[in-house]
Design a protein that fits this description.
Belongs to the LysR transcriptional regulatory family. Keywords: DNA-binding, Transcription, Transcription regulation. The chain is α/β, with parallel strands linked by helices. 44% of the residues lie in helices and 23% in strands. It has 13 helices and 11 strands. The strands form 3 sheets. Strands 3, 4, 5, 6, 9, 10 and 11 form a 7-stranded mixed sheet that branches. It has a two-stranded antiparallel sheet with strand order 1-2. α2 packs across α3, α3 crosses α4 and α7 packs across α13.
């Protein structure tokens, strides 16, 4: 058994190989495991050097296992399954200390995405108790840095020092207004200057939505109302109080029913990434790891 660790690839590399076999793509396998594609390529090359055989054929259309790679994958599956059994036993010995997951999420994610993820997590881990702290992106960051949450979800433009991140989805902000507003009948897009000069119903400072809009308009956004939840902003816009800027995720039903109208805008970048974040060096494990995986399904 001496030196076995030097001859057998590490568990993470074997999990990556299994993901490549299942997904047919090194890039998709990397995303599923929360690593970059260059890191995944490097891990595969290192494993090939260690074993002395080619494992994966790469092409523009995807990644295919070599004959040797298919055989190694079968062996790897047994090792990974044994490791999972070991982990399950170790968790039982810990007396269910991991049975509570603390999640902090920004408002849009908490309202429109997180419920579905938590339902799926319940199917995987029915005995896990999840506590949810909802607030704006700045509040989520504060919770994580104070060790008051295990995993967070934010919508802002960047993540401060002390946190690690992975992009889980992409989103777009849109300008909406009630059907009776003059903008609802416009035939040409709004300019950045028009948007910046018009008082808007906005989320409060510190929210990811506000960060993106302020960056797009150079900090010139003018609040007509500042509200602390997406639902409140939406309700005010539906009532005819004025135009609002909201996530596309939040207004699908209202747009379909014509309670709100989307107003095109030109030369204003309102796209954003949605991120999962955690304290540096504390990558989610157990229920947190499972929840993170579910966000990419």
């Amino acid at each position: 058994m001496a030196g076995l660790a030097h001859r057998v690839p590490e568990l993470g590399a074997l999990e990556l190989l299994l993901a490549v076999a299942r997904l047919g793509s090194l890039g998709r396998a990397a995303r599923e495991l929360g690593i970059t594609q260059p890191a995944a390529s490097s891990r595969i090359r290192s494993m090939e050097r260690q074993l002395g055989v080619a494992l994966v054929d790469r092409s523009p259309s995807g990644s295919r296992l070599t004959d040797a790679g298919a055989l190694v994958t079968d062996w790897a599956r047994r090792i990974v399954e044994a490791a999972e059994a070991f982990d399950a036993g170790a968790q039982a010995l810990r007396g269910r200390r991991d049975s509570r997951l603390r999640v902090a999420a920004s408002m849009t994610i908490a309202e429109y995405l997180l419920p579905g993820w938590l339902i799926a997590l319940r199917g995987r881990r029915p005995d896990t108790a999840v506590s949810l702290l909802a607030g704006n992106s700045a509040a989520v960051v504060e919770r994580l840095l104070a060790d008051e949450a295990d995993l967070g979800f934010v919508e802002g433009l960047s993540v401060p020092a002390g946190l690690d991140e992975t992009v889980i989805a992409h989103d777009r902000l849109i300008v909406v207004t009630a059907p009776g507003h003059p903008w609802a009948r416009r035939r040409r897009p709004l300019s950045a200057a028009e948007l910046a000069s018009t008082p808007l119903i906005l989320r409060e400072e510190g929210s990811g939505t506000r960060q993106v809009l302020d960056a797009a308009l150079g900090g010139l956004a003018r609040p007509l109302l500042e509200l602390s939840s997406t639902t409140a902003v939406k309700a005010s816009a539906v009532s005819g109080a004025g135009p609002a800027v909201l996530s596309e995720l939040a207004v699908g039903e209202e747009l379909a029913a014509r309670r709100l109208v989307s107003v095109p805008v030109e030369d204003v970048r309102l796209d954003r990434d949605l991120r999962a974040v955690w304290r540096t060096g504390h990558r989610p494990a157990g229920p947190g790891r499972d929840l993170l995986a579910l966000t990419r399904v």
